[in-house]
Design brief:
The protein has helices at residues 5-8, 13-29, 38-51, 55-58, 62-72. It is flat, with a radius of gyration of 21 Å. The longest helix has 17 residues, at 13-29. The protein has 75 residues and is mostly helical. The protein has two domains: 1-34, no CATH class; 35-75, no CATH class. It is built from five helices and no strands.
Length: 75
């Protein structure tokens, strides 16, 4: 556990959630590259292979999705 956890755990939940968001945002802005594990790369490749060539039968286009949302909202 990080040494600062004792102090951080005393903060109200709302402040801790804000800190989590700040940390997450800082990771996204970081220029540091993160290593991707081989097992994760293999899973992604397998899922893409299952999807490849089946786009039309497995999902909706943006326009189709917008139409469906509007239909459900009665618009």
């Amino acid at each position: 556990m990080h040494p600062a956890m004792d102090q951080l755990s005393k903060l109200p939940v709302s402040e801790r959630l804000a800190l989590v968001q700040d940390l997450w945002d800082s990771i996204g802005q970081s220029k540091e590259e993160l290593a991707v594990q081989d097992w994760h790369r293999e899973i992604v490749q397998a899922r893409l292979a299952e999807f490849d060539g089946r786009e039309d039968e497995l999902g909706l286009s943006r326009d189709q999705m917008t139409d469906e949302v509007n239909r459900r909202r009665g618009q």
